[in-house]
Design brief:
The complex is a heterodimer of chains A (279) and B (383). Chain A has 279 residues and is an alpha/beta fold. In chain A, 29% of the residues lie in helices and 16% in strands. Chain A has eight helices and eight strands; from the N terminus they run αββαβααβαβαβαββα. Chain B is α/β, with parallel strands linked by helices and 383 residues long. Classes of the chains: A alpha/beta (279), B alpha/beta (383). At the A-B interface, strand 2, helix 2 and helix 4 of A face strand 3, helix 3, helix 4 and strand 10 of B. Strand 2 of chain A pairs parallel with strand 10 of chain B.
């Protein structure tokens, strides 16, 4: 049923025949995904030369809904898959869209190394603080003391500070927004896909089904926290942006600088150079 | 740019011959991780790829290497990795992704003795069943077993051609001895090397179904950036590539990935017969063990025992018909391999009692000597 009245501006880059999506009511992934699609559409990049790569999990389903070359890979391996894709065809814009469990637990090592190499990828991580797809288990991003199905008395572990991890690893663009901050988020994604180098954007998103209901947090309450406790501090030191839902959630574009990408360094250092002009 | 095909005579190791074979086959992407005894493949190709227009990357582990190889192939590159047992275990995850997404690539396993860290510097053939069934679920795979550096060169080309023709990861199941052996390797003129490329789609982009099989069971492959806007997933999927979570869809998908191999066994399987025409005792062997077997056949013949060798160049899919025919015409079968009986299980299965089947094998660390084999030939022939 596609009458002109039912057309949505994002329909051209959606696999509309695959809608409805699997995301639960109140889930934040859809909003983050929409921001990503708007950024792709508005950035002016050649969408025929754009690939979206996901891993496994709720956010990992993103690749399945975007009408672009889209690759839904194995759990944690979206970044190395995307690395191969980018190196085989450097003309491609390669965007990784996946979740916190996928990118930072099982895939954590790949994130570190792609950032270290300054691989020319845009990595968008929807952080919903738990493993949603499997029913709400503790993740590497679950706040200390939070309840999940594998930490019923509270999480004994502490979460990663993802922007700091990205910075220490060598990422050259780092931003964090919540899915409520759609304009800022869209702007950041658009910037990231148009620049060279490893860009990382963390998107905080509620997971009412997996996380919220075990932590006495109704969907609207999670959004209120995102709205009321958010402090935008562009240029903030990544070491000082550890998430603290009581005191404040620091958002913004933290890092944006240039250094040679893997491909630039490889071409310069590893390939035979044309003979220099005699001077 | 330097030539990818180094035509001429060389004295090189099997590992280096493998790397040169890859370049001659048109490989333009290698992702790897150092591991004895396969490291020399990565070292050699790391120098050669950038000077021939390709790209080498050393990844953070073998999981990432295999993932990168698949990503590169989906973007259009003939791609490859090389490893040994522990790395091969790590690659099993994304090997499955390659099989189910029908992504061509070549994976070399220069086998060392396992399990676990095992004997890193010493040869074995203990990963043969892992090659067949190491990734979870049901699938068909192609695995080739080279016996010499010269064959490391040619079978690497063959592996690329098979992977491109049938759209799947193809394994080269080498061994430490063949990988580290230095021998004469003749590289022919580039014009003499036949290369295959994956079938590519034609026609309307909006009607293209990425997993709709063509005549030989193989679907044309659209690359990222071609404008076909394909969806590729490790989930069970339909011909459009879309997830389809039903038993019926699963049967159809598994039929696609197994059927394209089962339908083309005659085109895929390569074996070599040596003095088998009038043989009473047939050896079945592959890789470095086949070379010991050759010597044993000649020694047995010099003693008046009619022995012969069926050398498996293609190990998977297993040459079932060849084995059945052989079992029906000889008095005894002897499998010779550097493990405690893996391919031997297949020999027993296919011979089904038509001839008694013996094993000469040990778990690796040294080659099997012709003397070990000769003793079993004499016993089997009643001497």
């Amino acid at each position: 049923m596609t009458t002109s009245a039912s057309k949505h501006p994002l329909d051209p880059i959606l696999r509309t025949e695959r809608i409805p999506h699997i995301w639960c009511p109140g889930c934040g992934i859809g909003t983050a995904f929409s921001s990503c699609l708007i950024a792709l559409q508005s950035s002016g990049i050649d969408l025929d030369k754009t690939a979206v790569v996901s891993g496994i999990g709720c956010s990992g389903r993103g690749a399945g809904y975007v009408r672009l070359d889209s690759y839904h890979t194995t759990h944690g391996r979206a970044i190395p898959f995307a690395t191969g894709m980018k190196l085989a065809n450097p003309e491609l814009n390669v965007i990784v869209f996946s979740g916190d469990g996928d990118l930072f637990a099982i895939g954590g090592n790949h994130f570190l190394h792609a950032a270290r190499r300054n691989m020319d990828l845009t990595v968008i991580c929807v952080n919903n603080f738990n493993y949603g797809m499997t029913g709400g288990q503790a993740a590497a991003t679950t706040p200390n003391l939070a309840k999940t199905t594998t930490t019923t008395r509270g999480n004994p572990e502490s979460p990663f500070n993802l922007p700091l991890l990205a910075y220490a690893s060598g990422a050259t663009y780092i931003a964090r927004w919540t899915m409520l901050h759609t304009r800022d988020l869209t702007q950041s994604i658009s910037e990231a896909i148009q620049r060279r180098g490893f860009s990382f954007i963390e998107v905080l998103a509620p997971c009412p089904t997996g996380y919220g209901r075990r932590n006495k947090q109704k969907p609207i309450e999670a959004l209120k926290i995102f709205q009321e406790r958010a402090v935008v501090k562009n240029g903030a030191n990544p070491a000082e942006v550890l998430l603290d839902f009581k005191r404040g959630i620091t958002l913004g574009k933290f890092i944006d600088f240039e250094r040679p990408t893997f491909t630039e360094s490889y071409d310069k250092i590893c390939r035979p150079q044309p003979a220099a002009d005699s001077a | 740019m330097k030539p990818a095909v180094l035509t001429g005579e060389h004295f090189i190791t099997g590992d280096v011959a493998c790397a040169e074979g890859a370049l001659a086959a048109g490989c333009s992407f290698f992702a790897g991780y150092p591991i004895t005894p396969a490291t020399e493949i990565a070292e050699h190709i790391a120098g050669r790829l950038p000077e021939t227009g390709g790209t080498f990357i050393q990844m953070e582990d073998e999981i990432a290497a295999m993932a990168a190889v698949l990503g590169a192939s989906c973007a259009g590159a003939k791609s490859m990795t090389a490893t040994s047992g522990p790395g091969f275990s790590l690659m099993m995850e994304n090997l499955g992704l390659g099989l189910v997404t029908q992504t061509p690539c070549v994976v070399v396993n220069v086998q060392r003795a396992g399990p676990s860290t095992g004997l890193p510097t010493l040869g074995a053939q203990g990963d043969m069943m892992q090659a067949r069934w190491g990734s979870h679920g049901h699938y068909e795979i192609i695995a080739l077993a080279p016996s010499s550096p010269q064959e490391m060169f040619f079978l690497t080309i063959a592996a690329f051609n098979l992977s491109e023709t049938y759209r799947l990861p193809v394994l080269i199941m080498a061994d430490e001895v063949t990988g580290h052996l230095s021998e004469r390797v003749v590289i022919p003129d580039a014009s003499k090397i036949k290369l295959q490329s994956r079938p590519r789609p034609k026609g309307r982009k909006d009607r293209f179904k990425p997993f709709q099989a063509g005549m030989n069971g193989v679907a044309p492959m659209a690359h990222a950036g071609d404008g076909y806007k394909v969806h590729v997933t490790g989930l069970t999927h339909d011909e459009r590539g879309y997830p389809a979570m039903t038993a019926e869809a699963h049967v159809e998908m598994i039929s696609r990935i197994t059927g394209k191999i089962r339908k083309n066994l005659d085109r895929i399987i390569l074996v070599e017969e040596y003095r088998l025409d009038d043989a009473d005792v047939a050896l079945i062997s592959y890789g470095i063990s086949a070379r010991s077997s050759l010597a044993a056949v000649d020694e047995a013949r010099s003693k008046g025992i009619r022995a012969g060798l069926l050398r498996l160049i293609t190990v998977w899919p297993f040459p079932e018909d060849q084995l059945r025919r052989l079992a029906s015409r000889v008095k005894a079968l002897i499998t010779v391999e550097l493990n405690l009986g893996q391919i031997h299980l297949e020999v027993q299965r296919c011979s089904a009692g038509a001839a008694p089947a013996y094993l000469v094998g040990h778990p690796g660390g040294t080659v099997i000597t012709p003397g070990d084999i000769l003793r079993q030939i004499e016993e089997a022939s009643g001497r």
